[in-house]
Amino acid sequence: MTRQFAGIIAYPVTPFTPDGGIDVAMLARLINRLIDSGVHAVAPLGSTGESAYLSDEEWDLVATTSIAAVAQRVPTVIGISELTTAGAIRRARFAASIGADAVMVLPVSYWKLTEAEIVAHYAAIGAAVPIPIMLYNNPATSGVDMSPELIARICRDVPAVTMVKESTGDLQRMHRLRQLTGGTVPFYNGSNPLAFAALNAGAAGWCTAAPNLDAALPLALYQQIQAGDIAAARATFERQLPLLQFIVRVGLPTSVKAGLRLLDIDAGTPRLPLQPLGEQASAELAGILRALH
């Protein structure tokens, strides 16, 4: 039975030890912390989890540790962003074999991909695994920008693609996709500064790294939208907006790991070429967190 994804889908960082290895104990701690905070689902190995900087062995370790830590308490969607279809299939099969509820697939481009190539990429992954796929559109990191028309085509032609995460920050794409699919495909907001508008417009959930630093406000925003208390939701969103804008501007792994350190949780530093947050930006983040707490 397919588990449903709705609400706040939290993205953990991948913590590293001082010698650069995966800190599995800290990863389990971070995931437990997210679940204890009340998030509705967990999404390891996204952009926040520095998936692009992990070897296959490290990726497998993070996936296995994450699934074990979640222990089916909430749904889990594992992120996959691979240049090759073969690599994406390998990771999708591994995720399915260890108990992931879904995979989130982000096509990554070196050569510019045609629409036919993108459709074929999703079709091959969908044919290889028995779990659903969340299509992920994030041209800022992947180099691939899928139009609502292409996304609707993929959802129509690849039955395994049952959900869409859109991170361009363009709310009109959500409305256009709803028109093209008749509202049958759940839409998940991946643009932090757009969270209020997207949830208010009917997004099924918000995929975000923010709960690593403050889970109460994202959860309150979702609950207020669900209850129809739009004025309260707007105020809740505006209160957390400085944090959302900061983590997007600075970069998710860098800002979240710095924020965790300010909260006395050492998840290590980002992996090179990413650099730790500088002193001035750390002071700015500390001020933002003080205002929230």
Order of helices and strands: EHEHEHEHEHHEHEHEHHHH
From the 3D coordinates, which CATH architecture would you assign? Alpha-Beta Barrel
Distance between the termini: 39 Å
Task: Name the overall outline.
Answer: globular
Q: Which key terms come to mind for this protein?
A:
12 helices, globular, TIM Barrel, 49% helix, 11% strand, eight-stranded parallel beta sheet, 293 residues, alpha/beta, 8 strands, single chain
Structure description:
By secondary structure, the protein is α/β, with parallel strands linked by helices. Helix content is 49%, strand content 11%. The protein has helices at residues 24-37, 56-70, 85-97, 115-128, 139-142, 148-157, 171-181, 195-200, 216-227, 230-250, 252-262, 279-292; strands at residues 7-10, 41-42, 77-80, 102-105, 133-137, 161-166, 187-189, 205-208. Helix 1 links the parallel strand 1 and strand 2. The protein is globular and about 50 Å long. The model has no long low-confidence stretch (mean pLDDT 96).
In short:
The protein has 293 residues and is α/β, with parallel strands linked by helices. The protein contains twelve helices and eight strands.
Q: Topology, pairings included?
A:
Layout: E1 7-10, H1 24-37, E2 41-42, H2 56-70, E3 77-80, H3 85-97, E4 102-105, H4 115-128, E5 133-137, H5 139-142, H6 148-157, E6 161-166, H7 171-181, E7 187-189, H8 195-200, E8 205-208, H9 216-227, H10 230-250, H11 252-262, H12 279-292
Parallel strand pairs: 1-2, 1-8, 3-4, 4-5, 5-6, 6-7, 7-8
